[in-house]
Every structure is written in C-alpha cells, then in structure tokens.
Design a protein that fits this description.
23-stranded mixed β-sheet, single chain, 28 strands, five-stranded parallel β-sheet, mainly beta
C-alpha cells in the first residue's frame, strides 16, 4: 500500500504586513564559507513579527523601522528543554512493542546530542528573512519562520518554533544548520541547498524535512511528529527529481506516530527524472506504513537513479513492513535493529 503526501507547493510566500525589528546576535561574517549555491546581491535581515517589549529602547533603523535589542532572557537548561517538557507519547498496545536503536548511544543522535547545547543563552526574536550573504544566526529563540534568501547563511545554537508552513524555508542561496531545535511548523526544513547537522525536529504537523537537491541531513533526530488530520506525515520527504542528496547517521523514529506514512519517502512525483545520486546510509529508521518508500514518481512517469541504501537499521514499528521499493537501488548492510539479522529491501 502506497500513501503519497498531498501535492502542496513548497514555496509559500509570507505576507510582510508587520513592523520590522532588528535583533542582536545576527552577525555578517566576512569570508564565511559558502554552501556552493547561488550568490544573492540583496542585503539585510528583517525580523518579522514579535513586537518589542514595553521597556525596549526605541530608535530608528534602516527603512525607518523601530530598532530594539532584547537582552538574553532564556537559558537552555536541557537539550532541548522543550522536548523534555512534552508529555510522554502514549504507550503502544501489549504485544506491539517497538525495538530501540541498537547503535551505541555515543553514536546515535538523541536528545543529548541534538538541538541547543545545554547552558546556551537564547535571545528572543521574531521571524527572520535573511537576504545578506554569509550571515550567522547564533543563539536565538525564534518565534516564527526563517526565510533564507542568500548564500553562506549559518544558523546554529538556536530554537525555532511556530505554526507556519516551513520552519526554515530555503528560497534561494544556501544554509548550514547545526545544533538547532525546530518544532510546531507544518514542515521543519524545506528547499534545496541546505545542510543540517545535530538538528532536533519534533511536533511538526506535516513532514520533518523536505529533501531537495544538494541537501545533506546528518547526525540529526526526527521524532514525535503531530500530523494534521489529513496529513500523510513523513520524517523526510523527497518529491522532486533531486541530485546530490545525502541522509546519513540520523535517527528518524515515527514508531509512536499513528498517522505516520514513513520515516523516509523517496518518490519524485513532481519530476523531473534525474541521475541522483541519493545516499541513505547509517540511519536508524522506524514507523509509518512502510518505514522506507523508494519508488517511482507520478505512477511511473519519473525516476531517480543511483540510489544507495546501506548500513541502516530498521525497527519493527511499521504497519506493513520495512520498505516498499519498485526502482533499482544499490543496497547492503541493512539490518533489523533488534536482532542484527540481514534485511533485504
């Protein structure tokens, strides 16, 4: 049984109808490493929404916007504290137990190794629109979405939460995301040309991440999704004919999400066909109807070639089985997590 996610356009323009405020800890870095993507000539960072506190110092910034700088007010006491504060997921019925990842904890992404590092002081911010190349976003508690429209952007040691379609939307340019927590949005990250490392994504109501071209997701934790009633939620979803996609050493665990479609959904429904390559290596995957879908797009119209699925561990929380595969793949080293038995997809 194949469940395809709804064909929702991945680019939703946000209406800029609110005042713009400058926020501290957004630093242009000369000579910062670019992500190998298009350079953007526009300049500036807008923060959207989030009115300044009553006692905030006011002034006049660029474009006659009010300027304020919030003092650090929140410290991450756990990694991440929002995850620790959420209620535990409901227990599965007797006889329906799900195996735990067998990868040694020192190597397995989890609450201790993803998200905002313990002790990081976070500064409140509203939504961000980043249009200056090589900007570094460090130590922000962002209530709202982040739109990336420049090359060489870095987002690290930050918490991003809200209810917009995308937590981080890479509209142009490229971004490197690390040690960051994303929650509450429809989709955590979307677009091409991004790298995510040690990212903790949870409580989104669509997909954990949208997997585009020139994307690397590594050492990250996607879990505890909260699908909307009509969502076929995937931990990671590829729906284009992508190139240069790497998903490596992540835990994508949807075993306690009843409405989950898959941990990884690879189907180029929107086309075009491509030569890839796509690398799925060293992950711990669980949950969904099938844990992994690796299929053609739009009922056979499109296909992505050069897909390798290697050295992954599969839990037993899927409804129908570990994988649904109808395209050629290279596979080796995949195992059942609980027994270590070889698994042929």
């Amino acid at each position: 049984m194949r469940h395809r996610a709804p064909g929702i356009a991945r680019r939703v323009q946000l209406a800029l109808l609110v005042p713009v405020f400058a926020v501290s800890l957004i630093i242009p870095v000369a000579g910062a490493e670019l992500c190998g993507a298009r350079a953007v000539s526009t300049a500036g960072i807008d923060t959207l929404g989030g009115a300044p506190p009553d006692n905030a110092p006011l002034g006049v910034g660029a474009n006659a916007a009010e300027l304020w700088t919030a003092a650090p007010t929140r410290t991450a006491t756990a990694r991440p504290s929002l995850v620790a504060a959420r209620p535990a997921p409901p227990a599965r019925p007797p006889g329906d137990a799900v195996s735990s990842p067998s990868v040694p904890s020192a190597r397995r992404p989890d609450q201790a190794s993803t998200g905002v590092p313990v002790g990081t002081v976070l500064t409140p911010s509203g939504s961000l629109r980043i249009t200056t190349p090589n900007q570094v976003i460090d130590g922000l508690d962002i209530a709202g979405a982040v739109s990336v429209e420049a090359s060489g952007v870095v987002i690290k040691n930050s918490r991003i939460h809200g209810g917009d379609p995308y937590g981080i939307d890479v509209r142009s340019g490229c971004v490197t995301i690390s040690d960051t927590e994303i929650s509450g949005f429809e989709n955590g990250i979307a677009g091409d040309d991004w790298t995510g490392s040690r990212v903790n994504i949870h409580s989104v109501y669509g997909d954990g991440v949208k997997l585009g071209s020139d994307v690397t997701l590594q050492d990250s934790w996607i879990h505890d999704l909260s699908p909307a009633p009509d969502a076929h939620a995937d931990g990671g979803q590829m729906q284009d004919g992508v190139r240069n996609l790497v998903v490596r050493n992540n835990v994508i665990d949807l075993s306690n999400v009843d409405a989950a479609n898959s941990a990884l959904f690879l189907a180029p429904d929107f086309g075009p066909s491509s030569d890839g390559p796509v690398t799925i290596d060293g992950n711990w995957l669980d949950g969904g109807n099938f844990t992994l879908y690796c299929v053609d797009g739009n009922d056979g119209q499109y296909i992505v070639k050069n897909i390798s699925v290697t050295n992954n561990e599969f839990g037993r929380g899927a409804k129908y089985g570990p994988a649904d595969v109808n395209v050629p793949i290279s596979q080796s080293g995949n195992i059942w997590a609980d027994t270590g038995a070889t698994l042929v997809l």
